[in-house]
Amino acid sequence: MTIDGVAAGVPYTALPPEHGGPAPLVLTWHMLDAPRTNAAFAAALPMNGVAAWRVHLGLPMCGDRMVDGSMDAVMALARRDPLREFADGFSRQAAEEFPAALTALRAELPIGDGPLGIVGGSLGGLVALRVLTSGVPVTAAALVNACIRPRSLVDMVTGGTYPWDADTNALADELDFVKRAGELRVPLLVVSGEQDDPPFRVDAAALADAAPHAELLTVPGLAHPLADEPGLAPAPQLPLAKQVDDALTGWFTRHLR
Prior knowledge:
By secondary structure, this protein is α/β, with parallel strands linked by helices. It has 8 helices and 8 strands, in the order E-E-E-H-E-H-H-E-H-E-H-H-E-H-E-H. The chain has an 8-stranded mixed sheet with strand order 1-2-4-3-5-6-7-8, sandwiched between helices. Helix 2 crosses helix 3 (82-108), helix 3 crosses helix 4 and helix 3 (82-108) packs across helix 5. The longest helix is centred in the middle third of the chain and has 27 residues, at 82-108. It starts with a strand and ends with a helix.
């Protein structure tokens, strides 16, 4: 059974544990590549074997919050300023929405205040990293083809032509979670597709080396997306997504006790 709802203005897709009652919580933030909505991400990475509520949160301007029924408004942020508006502004809004959404979810679903796991894919990974360093008590976390250093994303978007200055360099350093790896003190699974964008693969390996309790999992054959286009609606799970799903299931089964 899938439960669709809204928590403090944030759309979500919730998958209950088999028994349907009180259990730990795993929260996710989806990708902007396919699967690019909470419902689609829930279908790609349901983690059905985890004895927990899995709640997939919708990112701003995605899914039920799309502007004029498309992702164009999100892409416009990247065109205007891929650092300030896209990497920073977009992920900051999602991270700032999180505490109120978590409080609402704990009131709406039988999850209590027990163990909490979080997952972030692609730019949703930057949201997860911001939450991990915000003081929210997280038990375990996982990243999938994540944006770990926004400088890498900006250089990919602009082809290396971004007009860096003192302020933007300082902002990129603030959001460089390889540099901040010492703050990531929970068990962290870093999933990296063998065919993901090379800068993202480099950053994933660097984070796994630098964070105190991190493990790197490289998935052969996996590119950046986890689903076929258009990635807006739930779709059958792809074989490579199942490999990621199995890894996340094992990770959170180990650590959410």
